[in-house]
Amino acid sequence: MGIFLSALLFLILLITGRTIYFRKKFSFETAEPSKVFTVSEKSVSKLAKAIRIKTISYSDTSMIDMKEHRKFGNFLKENFPFADKNMERTQLNDFSYIYKWEGKEKEKSPVLFMAHFDVVPDQKEGWLHRPFSGDIEDGRIWGRGTLDTKNSLVTIMEAAELLLAEGFEPVRTIYLAFGGDEEISGLKGAVSTVKYFQKENIHFDWVLDEGSIIAKDMFSMVKEPLALIGIAEKGFVNILISASGTGGHASMPPVHTASGLVAGAVSVIEAHPFPVSISGTVVQFLKSLIPYTGFLTALFLSNLWLFKGIVKLIFTKSPASAAMVRTTQAVTVMKGSSKDNILPDSAEAIVNIRIIPGETTESVIKRLKGIIKNKDIEINFLDRDYASDPVNESEINSHGYKTVKAAVEAVYPEALVAPFLVTAATDSRHFEQITDNIYRFSPMALTPKELKTIHGVNESISIENFGKMIHFFKIMMKMI
After folding, report:
1. Is 464 a catalytic residue?
2. Which of 4, 43, 193, 361 has the highest Cβ tally under 10 A?
3. What is the pTM assigned to this prediction?
4. Separation between Cα atoms, residue 258 and residue 261, nearest integer Å
5. Active-site residue among 182, 409, 427, 459?
């Protein structure tokens, strides 16, 4: 009994000591808040104009209104005259615009700011303001693209425009790259841009693209807003599950129809979720929260070697947190017979899969084939060109991460900064070959309700958020 009590006491002292140590180690002093920045009506009107251009991307590219897409190039010229005059502009095609802002110290590696100007189609019902109205009302700018990501594009350009008007010259060369097909994987925009930079032998110190946000009221572990800087990104693949059958009248069905076979496979998939893994970026994210959580939560997070099972259980309680710790699989499309009384001669389902670091597109399809043990089911990539493996983790001690962090602390002093795993796909995943560090961060503070409007109805941004985004990019550009 004495040995047991001694061991228990040692364990308690060990985990308590680790908790106290990590609460001190990962705390940080925030920078002094910057001066108040007042956004002008002229700046606001630029985003409103951008929203009114219907640059909608469709998987069926023949549906894209190229006349509208081409309007965006003229929009950039007309609304950012200092940038047009003082930067070198390269247009690769209707989906790729590149600006080069020459820096004073040319021996230093350049940096890149990214955004995209295409948007997803709009739902027809439920909008308080028409989706491409660009209305300015109730302290907000309304319309598709106000959060994803015409807001980032316009604020990056406006920050540069204002600095150029002041006669500012950056230390490093800054590139700006804007794509017009991010919502359909960026094969003409981002991929063409990467090939251009490779041809020019340009390697970036770091790249900043869209991604995570400043999350308000989204994590119960801490009360402060969390500025989530994406240092890694999940992979993406669509898997096609299909089966063949014999057509005919539904009054004389076989034991299993093609639709029934596919439904059975879907049932197996949903009954076998991918395993939970807490490692890499997620561990860094959790460690950064330790000083700001309650002591009991800090105790769990400081001693994952002992409490990892409990932390895994906590994370799997909601879809948002579960997406950080496992490869997700969502059955999104199912097709069978065209009529209720006709047997389907074929059926299919599409499984949208977001892949956690440590797994690959190949390991995902291998796993699905392993759990669906039915020779009548075919399992294939829907489109291999649109699939991507997870993006490698970027450094948190680099110039790029520290610059983003410092700008956040200046504009949002109330926010806590934490590295994060981005669960959606971005154009920046194509840039791994030309930079060692990719960061994904959109400097806007959003509530869960606002976040749901991205790709949904009533997408809008507050003028306060819009102004802070301009301020953020100005500060970053000055720090480079």
Report:
1. no
2. 193
3. 0.91
4. 5
5. 182
